[in-house]
């Protein structure tokens, strides 16, 4: 445990102070120690690093009060976290009963301050409260919980019922979500080592995220543009629902993400996806009036997926959100022309802020002077669903 303890402290320093991506830091340290770490060590490392990142501010405030002197700041933070968990500390770093009492007493006094209790920056607590009012308190609380692992059955290769049987036979504990392609992993296990995954029978995708593509009302044989495709989660879902019939144009400004999409598409057996990096505005102009359906899964703050990406709290700034709002408007204004007259587009984000969602759609509808109309919009709140926070709006282009 001692080596893992030190490594967690170093990794936490990278996430918090060097602003490195949490998932990338996890991958780096696991790869670096793969010859010496057991599966138990890996589980300890991942869990503790994720949770100390999630609860950084609360742990930091406790540290300020009691100053336990275990070494560096991040070693203190990790030690305070471990003092309250079943993992425990290395023998030479044992926390005394007296110190545990100090931690608990300090915790009680800090709990009355929401930004500290929920471990978020003051600016974010202020913004959330301004935009969501009384709803913010319960949403941020839910966003600090551990995310479920949700799978989406790939209908190009299986059905949810068949996937359930296959994974159960392989020894995994899963349950189906009724009337959907989703299954939840109910007992922690590396399901990505399963034969079912290697054969492309499923993808990991949160249940809220799985609602976006069906909301687009896509049909087999249509021409669909996934305008901010990233590494392809929703493009693969489109291919599954379209039964590989029709065409999906997957666009992104980052070519490396599209290369990952191609790799995933091969495993999934998705043959109707064509990738195009957005190199200049000409890429978009060539697609004007071509799409029966247009998906704009816009870049956003990611505040709806904080439980999955707790490092966002420490990397994001209020200025970043201002910049993202501007980018969202630019994307809506420029990309909407790819849609055919009479076609549908969906604007979606993994944010719960109205300023990135409803307000952006209203701005777009007003700016386009009646050319586009809002058909339906939904906000999926974590406190109501138990899953990630998402927003989606279906918009129709007039003739």
Automatic annotation (TrEMBL):
GO biological process, one term: RNA methylation
Enzyme active site: 350 (nucleophile)
Residues given in the record as S-adenosyl-L-methionine binding sites: 252, 297
UniProt-listed SUPFAM superfamilies: S-adenosyl-L-methionine-dependent methyltransferases
Domain SAM-dependent MTase RsmB/NOP-type: 139-399
Keywords associated with the record: Methyltransferase, RNA-binding, S-adenosyl-L-methionine, Transferase
GO MF term set: RNA binding; RNA methyltransferase activity
Keyword RNA-binding: yes
Family listed: Belongs to the class I-like SAM-binding methyltransferase superfamily. RsmB/NOP family.
Protein name in UniProt: Methyltransferase domain-containing protein
Record organism: Tenuifilum thalassicum
Taxonomic lineage: Bacteria, Pseudomonadati, Bacteroidota, Bacteroidia, Bacteroidales
